Known about the structure:
Layout: H1 2-11, E1 35-42, E2 47-61, E3 64-75, E4 80-90, E5 94-97, H2 105-110, E6 115-121, E7 123-126, E8 134-135, E9 138-146, E10 149-170, E11 173-188, E12 190-201, E13 205-213, E14 216-227
Antiparallel strand pairs: 1-2, 1-14, 2-3, 3-4, 4-5, 5-7, 6-9, 8-10, 9-10, 10-11, 11-12, 12-13, 13-14
Amino acid sequence: MKRIIIITIVLFGVVSTLNAQSGCSKYYPFKEGTKAEITTYDKKGKKAAVIDYTVLNKTQTSQGEVATMKSSVKDENGKLIAETEYNVTCDGSKISIDYKSMVSPMMMEQFKNMDYDISGTDLEIPNNLSVGQTLPDAQMNMKISMSGINMNMELNITNRKVIGKENVTTPAGTFDCYVLTSDTTTKMGVSQTSNSKQWIAEGVGMVKQEDYQKGKVSSSSLLTVFSK
Length: 228
């Protein structure tokens, strides 16, 4: 289950519930109090975890509007596993999700008493999505020091493309979506690459995601609750 949660956080959590009404971000809500619930499932369709996202506040800076997000991860039985906060910035043409948010809440909880340094490139989603569009890569590198032992984790999100438009129905409703695909490579001792397909809707964010290993679905996620 932990592996499924990590993939979901990386590929969905960093870009999930950010208000078209705000006039800045077209696809991801920045309205304070907006909430979304994402339910993740394993490759057999069994419920694996629930991730709650909340927009805590929105501020205006020289870089644009900044929304502070909170994500809470619960296991299949509703037990809280971890929580984290991160910022998302909208400059009017795109949103930029802080690369630090690519580290899952579970990993941050695990390394909270260790020395670590995080660097990288923010994940960007433009307001003017169109079929056939290629989106910028994103990257995160985390250096960890523990009792004189140094570890390094690297995550790269590449080959990001907009491949189509589809209607998607989830427990939260029916949505007109753009379909995005990407590859994610993680390196921490060994290298592993997975692929994902994500459906995002205007004013809502992600409503569905499928993750693949060697061409087969390894996990999936659905928007099960949305309110703003």
